[in-house]
Amino acid sequence: MRGVVRSRALLADRRFLSLWLSQGIAQTAQNALLFSLLVVVLNITNSSVHTSILVFCFILPSIPLGFAVGVILDRVDKEPVLVITNLLRAVGCILFFFFHSDEWVIYGIAVSVATAGLFFNPAVVSLIPSIVSREKLVPANSLYNLTLTGAQLLGIVFVAPVLLKSVGPDGMFLTSTGLFLIAAFFAARVNVWHDRAKAEPGQGTNFGSMPTEFRESWRALVSDRYSFLALGQLILSSSLVLLFAILIPRYMRDVLDVPADNAALIFAPTGIGALVGLRFLSWFTRFGKNRTVVIGLAGIAVCMVLLALVEPIEGVWEKGPDSLDPTNILRISALQALVMSFAGPMGFFYALLNVPAQTVLHERAPPEMRGRIFATQVVSANFISLIPLLMVGAITDLLNITVVLILLAALIGGFAFLSERVGPPPEREDAPGRREEERVHT
Fold first, then answer.
1. Which of 4, 154, 246, 282 is deepest in the core (most CB within 10 A)?
2. What b/e string do you get for 330-343 counting C-beta neighbours within 10 Å, with b at 16 or more?
3. How far is 388 from 244, CA to CA, in rounded Å?
4. All domains of the chain, ordered by start, with CATH?
């Protein structure tokens, strides 16, 4: 209840409300666009390798440019960055509308759209301290992460599948264009005055210092064990969303034998489960922020194993009473009903990942480096997740979706175990003095 009250107080501020709406709408459009393109490319090529290439195109710009994002944002007004970013992505959606019959043309446009969007999330996070007071930073960051998770689920699980099924790719691309234009409108209403004199001494306009400043932010993360663990958890969390987007179309076709645009129905419980998980997040954090993430990772691993084994589970279920047959009530197959029953808990456990890990990172990061550290997080997540994202398509084509899900579940479970062993005990997470002492000793 306290979290709801704090969120309402934040949204009563017109500037924060405009920033929040711009963030939520733009991120929903971005995730819906990515899923739609994955379906289009899979239909054109009939290959998971090509869907991995598409994701690679969205990640590619962050490798040469990502390290400079945080440093550039420290030197420019961030409100125009948000507006321009959304306008350029709207133009990209128009190009997708006219040119989406060839996968290589799609890849080229995707790189341009990803380059335009590279500055968006770091700019949003960097603006938050300029809008809200210091005592409201934690609820503001929590709301940011809640919106980030909600936009991922809304775009991938609901918006894209519904629009693809009802109006097709053309309608989806036009809708994304409209969403990015609306996001640009709200970004223009933020009206935050920026004092460039607040930049760190010696920054000036020397862009040649960017590599050095990026290395400094990376060293700040690596030097603190718990910050580095939180970074790893956030990287895994963001990678899971991309892997989820890559694997859903193939899972729908190979396991359920239904078109990928039916994902809105089959995986709708994922979004519902995530909303329930966010509602109970504060209850879980009583066990400690790191342990909450461990619970989320372990739960996701179990759900992925169940999704991988859904066909043999269906065989056991069909031997039960006819009254348990979902076709008698829901008019869906037993296989689809089982997937829906596993998707809900998976969304619930995913909701436990981002907010605790992001909070740890914000609490332990040096205040003067938070903008660069967030950009470092984004760049590191994209770079580190690049290899598994490229490999998952090839592995899926060579083996099958079931093997891929089990392998991913094993990796997630292993990381959960590592987080439990390496992470801080709950009683030490909220001791600022000890955090500073740990950083000094490290």
1. 246
2. eebbbbbbbbbebb
3. 12
4. 2-191+210-441 (1.20.1250.20)
* Identity at 137, one-letter amino acid code: L
DSSP state of 154: I
The span from the CA of 418 to the CA of 172, in Å, is 41
Are the C-beta atoms of residues 388 and 239 closer than 8 Å to each other?
yes
Between helix 289-308 and helix 334-350 the angle, nearest 10°, is: 160
Which ranges constitute the DSSP H helices of 225-324?
225-254, 263-266, 268-279, 281-284, 289-308, 310-317
Task: Using CB atoms within 10 Å of the CB of residue 369, give its burial: 0 to 12 exposed, 13 to 18 middle, 19+ buried.
Answer: middle
Nearest to 352, CA basis, from 428, 268, 421, 412 = 412
Rounded to whole angstroms, the Cα distance separating 83 from 176 reads 15
Half-sphere exposure of 242 (CA within 13 A, CB side): 28
- Within 10 angstroms of residue 73's Cβ, the number of other Cβ atoms is 21
Question: What digits encode the pLDDT tens for the residues 283-298?
Answer: 887 888 889 999 999 9
Residues 131-182: tens digit of each pLDDT: 877 666 667 766 777 787 778 778 887 888 889 888 999 999 999 999 999 9
